[in-house]
């Protein structure tokens, strides 16, 4: 795109919608965003801006918008703080405001306060602004505001009252917690159907607590993928973030299996036998694994279930409501047509054509809803097992930053997501070409208009059976890098969100679930953001290899943050054994991901590792034996010396795996998210091998909290 600087009026319009017109890149250079980029982003927000006259008209519109509505589309109040509520009425007209508290909590009047603002002409009507006050002691929750002007029908809008901050569970606050980090699909057992599943997670959790003293297990996002091949391998590019991927079900633990006929049971056993042949493969084949599992689950679904099970399923469907029905409808249509090239009449989730398809595919829709119910049951079972075993946290789920542009959420949430743009990241030291994640972003304006209900429902689903929630790229609650479609990641800009609302709702839902929240706050982060998240009780993320002082030195363990999840590595880096041997450099060179000479990149990387090894030796953590195993143990002990309340250990590090899980900046060039757990020789290992080994105990003993 052209680098033409925006006009003064275009820049003013951009700022009104939270669109950045300048930023500082990873090398500290000031960048002015080109006018074409700004206009493309504003168009995605339905803001006319092609000509000077359109820009001026849009500026007037954004100024008058709040005056055209009696109540704001959504009001957020923080418990303990007074919140003003502007109400717009015909000048001089009497108005009464009250709140209906959620769950039939009764009616509470809202007091009007002194507010001297001149009235203004709004579309030919002289309009005044009155100010009301939400008191500091208002109960937490999702309430409904009412405003009645004279004898008119009352106007309503959501009122969300959130806690000031999350508080940690007493045991975690007192002594911290250590746990495992696992890519569940890669953690296969002899009983797996070609892919790690929730039964494997249950076994892993029980072992991690009893033998290793772990207090949590962090898993990759379990979000829903396509119901048919090809299934997107990345758990960070799901079709829905509210619903989950039934590929993680363990068929043998579905209660309805007991009611199969002998013939159908034999058919399931034969499918299991074929699926387990995939378990030793060097690359995970999701399509094949789901093909076998889907066939078996359809047999189980068709079995006659007891009335108590039928009623439990009906209750689940009622609880999940329209969102579940829409998701299941998308899955049913996608199972028949694929996920692309649908007829135009099926693009609108509320169209008569979609209603007709839902009726025609009623049994398939019900099957897709049933899968979600069974997943919900098995997820609940794993968390119960974890807490019963004595874990202070249990399962820590992971929330991806976005969804597939042609998936169920993109279809069902409609106007809540931006069109014509995708989310990504500007260039940084590890991805010098920038990143395009091919995901439509939330629209800040539409989220507010919808009372943040889609965001709330997504959080509730992720927190329902979790002791903690990791938010991938939590900076996305503050600003996201929007890339106009058809352009490179370098031709994007930041768009700001109402972070008080998004973080406040996150805090409220986590508080109600009794869960901890960890924000992945790596990369380019405005300094004040980390302070804000800390003050709201949200933990950050510290990765040993990224922790550097201002002069490029290794950060001492004593200087780490207390409110964070610290670890040696992360899924976007190779396992520690691979990092120590330069695996990431080999992969990036082979894929042509460097923008500087390879020699320069290698020299810097080797210098960084040498610097780290030198610090380990200085602190007495490394002697003459500098084998990979010894260095891995030393690095984990180094992290254990930090004040970080949470410490995570990658399951890959426990077995000496070297292969990169995900190489950012690539798609099919590397088998991202398809690499199974393996040993130092790259040969796949099963969970039984991990549990029987001794290496895990050596590392986990080094990072015990408390």
Task: Provide the gyration radius in Å.
Answer: 27 Å
Largest sheet: 8 strands, parallel
Distance between the termini: 54 Å
Query: Mean of residue pLDDT?
Result: 94
Beta-strand percent range = 15-25%
The poorly predicted ranges are: none
Shape: globular
What is the β-strand count? 25
Helix content: 25-40%
Q: How are the strands of the largest sheet arranged?
A: 22-19-16-13-12-25-24-23
Helix count, per DSSP? 22
Derived from helix and strand composition plus strand pairing, the structural class reads alpha/beta
Multimerization status: single chain
Polypeptide structure, described:
With 706 residues, the chain is α/β, with parallel strands linked by helices. Helix content is 37%, strand content 18%. An eight-stranded parallel β-sheet has the order 22-19-16-13-12-25-24-23. A five-stranded mixed β-sheet has the order 3-11-10-5-6. The protein is globular. The model has no long low-confidence stretch (mean pLDDT 94).
How is the topology of this model organized?
Layout: H1 8-16, E1 22-24, E2 30-32, H2 35-44, H3 52-64, E3 75-78, E4 83-90, E5 95-101, E6 106-109, E7 111-113, E8 120-122, E9 125-134, E10 141-149, E11 155-162, H4 170-175, E12 177-182, H5 198-212, E13 216-219, E14 223-224, E15 240-244, H6 262-276, H7 286-301, H8 307-337, H9 352-360, H10 362-388, E16 394-399, H11 408-412, E17 421-425, E18 435-439, H12 444-449, H13 453-463, E19 468-471, E20 479-484, E21 493-496, H14 499-513, E22 516-519, H15 527-535, E23 540-543, E24 564-567, H16 576-580, H17 583-590, H18 598-618, H19 628-640, E25 646-650, H20 651-655, H21 687-692, H22 695-702
Parallel strand pairs: 3-11, 12-13, 12-25, 13-16, 16-19, 19-22, 23-24, 24-25
Antiparallel strand pairs: 1-2, 4-9, 5-6, 5-10, 7-9, 8-9, 10-11, 14-15, 17-18, 17-20, 20-21
Helix pairs in contact: 1-3, 5-10, 6-7, 8-10, 13-14, 19-22
